[in-house]
Write a structure and sequence with these properties.
The chain is α/β, with parallel strands linked by helices and 223 residues long. Helix content is 44%, strand content 10%. The protein has 2 domains: 136 residues, HAD superfamily/HAD-like (Rossmann fold), CATH 3.40.50.1000; 66 residues, DNA polymerase, domain 1. Helix 4 runs parallel beside helix 6. A 6-stranded parallel sheet has the order 3-2-1-4-5-6, sandwiched between helices. This is Phosphoglycolate phosphatase.
Length: 223
């Protein structure tokens, strides 16, 4: 890293689709629920929910499938499946784990900011370790509201405007940008549009701390 570049005050990580490839787990659960209720679940339905607050997603599912399950029961059923799968195996997204380890070695604080609930995120938190963890069941307003990212920055004792957020969905990127973070978007299941204070990259494979700082313009125009 050259002397012009400064370290971000913190890096705030989304989980699903950014750190670990859980989207197929969520999607297969949605298909199973729909099938159990005699309803066809489409790819469009699944993509519509990527990055959403779990209860918001469950209300959408309830609307689509009908039946007797409450949104809370839908979250419990889907979340239980994903948590079990994650305990068995974590499919890391390319470059993500390596970047987490490099940031830790450099002393950059990191937070996990996920709409998954604490019991779902637990295996990932145990595997990687974070300085702060914000989960969907610990905030009042989920993504795309800025509260999750503002909460993470506050827990780390930094301003959100001094943080870099790493996200894979437009919902998550909108949440982080609304909080004032610079966003590095790594689209996975859905596209993420270009926007101010946002850099869209194809993959984190080979992306290091110096690349992150450069993307965020640290030491240059964006302070």
């Amino acid at each position: 890293m050259n002397s012009l570049q400064k370290l971000p005050k913190a890096v705030l990580w989304d989980m699903d689709g950014t750190l670990v490839d859980t989207e197929p787990m969520w999607i297969s659960g949605e298909h199973q629920l729909a099938e159990d209720h005699g309803v066809v679940w489409t790819e469009e339905d699944s993509l519509h929910l990527v990055g959403s607050d779990l209860l918001v997603a469950a209300r959408y599912i309830k609307q689509r499938i009908g039946g007797d399950m409450t949104p809370e029961e839908i979250v419990d059923w889907l979340g239980g499946r994903v948590a079990s799968a994650l305990r068995e195996k974590q499919e890391w997204r390319p470059g993500a784990r390596e970047l987490v380890e490099e940031l830790r070695a450099a002393g950059v604080p990191q937070a996990l900011v996920t709409m998954s609930y604490a019991y779902i995120a637990e295996p990932v938190v145990e595997a990687l370790g974070f300085d702060a963890v914000v989960t969907g069941d610990s905030v009042t307003q989920g993504k795309p509201h800025p509260e999750p990212y503002l909460t993470a920055a506050e827990m780390l004792g930094v301003r959100a405007a001094d943080c870099i957020a790493i996200e894979d969905s437009r919902t998550g990127a909108a949440s982080a940008n609304a909080a004032g973070c610079f966003v590095v978007a790594v689209p996975h299941a859905v596209t993420v549009p270009e926007a101010p204070f946002r850099a869209v990259v194809k993959s984190l494979d080979g992306v290091n701390l110096a690349d992150l700082a450069r993307l965020a313009g640290l030491g240059h125009a964006h302070q």
